[in-house]
Amino acid sequence: MPASLVQIQQIFDKKLEGKKVKIRGWVYRKREIKYTIFLLIRDSTGVIQCTVKKDSSAWEMADKVTIESSVILSGMVKSDKRAPGGYEIAVDQLTIVGLAETFPITKDYSEDFLRDVRHLWLRSRRMTLIMRVRSEVLKFIHDFFRRRGYVEVSPPMFISSACEGGATLFGLKYFDKELYLTQSAQLHLEALIYSLEKVYCVAPSFRAEKSRTIRHLAEFWHVEAEAAFTTMEDMMKLEEDLVAYICHQTAKKCKKELEILNTNIEKLLKVKTPFPRITYNEAIERLQNKGFKIEWGEDLGYDEEKALAEDFGHPFFIYAYPRKIKAFYCKTYRDNPELVMSEDMLVPRIGEIITGGAREDNKEELIKRLKEFGLRQEDYEWYIDLRRYGTVPHAGFGLGVERLLAWILDLENVIDAVPFPRTIRRYYP
Ligand code: NSS
Known about the structure:
Helix content is 32%, strand content 29%. It is of the alpha+beta class.
């Protein structure tokens, strides 16, 4: 009977003991003990031990094969308590598809080295699991928005004016013009709510971040949403529902991955809505009481955010910020124009993962804000048009996918939440 082609996980799930199978994959480990070569073979679904005896016709190939070579092999499934997972394959046929040269990742496991050979390190168990969870988290995000009636839209990557301030814009030559890579899709999402009302997107954002921190990338994936006839408070509810949904789904559907990655699953299950909310004023007071030298009107840095997050040990919000430290598009409180309706969601260790709020919907107020920030009105005429023709109260937010994943998976750095990180120092491979 010819061997049937299976994926490794199927061998464990279907308990294929006594069946002849064929698998395709890569050599993960190899060792030889007393006339037997033990090969650990991995495919996208798992790892299985394969044994080749000296008297087998597969011996010659098994002897020759190297770590990370690609192979096709067939043999009988046997149960063996000593094998990882309880099953192994007694190999009778082994074909080498691509014989690997000496694999460079052997002893040097320093973070810097692993990031230099990221294209190869992506094969590791750890990176494979992280990428699987990332894929699931993105699916949960799409599921959530669609269930809430949000329409997915595709914003432009080339833009002509800043959303989040000029300091972190990447400029580029666009035919004979100077343009920028987008920092946020927000302004374009705002244009789309006048027809679709509730929109969202998942797209890359680019920031020329010079700071080397555990939470800054030059290219990150941004989940952004915007809705008409909506207040900042409505948006905060949507944000906490989204984050709670992602945490609970991940804990449930990615349990196996989280366990192997040694992630604190309890932390995800404990996430409960509503999240605590404090005002910026309260945040300053708390920080001063903790001995931070921070004055009202100053922005919160990473250390301040981390210290506040320690108090909660759970996602929480800070809202109502001074008008000077938040972007030009933020709506001012009509009864207190020193403050804007802007809010951040923070999580322990990482700090801010979401920024959102109500957008200035009054034309004159918006023009005043543009002036305050020294921005040229003519660069934003199209954006001001949105207040000229049927303006509505509206709000939205942006969530950094890598920051969220770094928190969910207890990663030390957002760099490991994305396959090919881009930072001031890293753009290869
Ligand atoms: O600059 S933000 O705080 N806000 C915006 O871009 C709004 N225009 C979003 C909106 O309302 N539609 O960025 C939003 C989030 C922030 O909370 C982080 O989670 C993430 O985007 N972010 C980053 N992640 C990784 N690396 C960098 N450099 C980065 N910058 C922001």
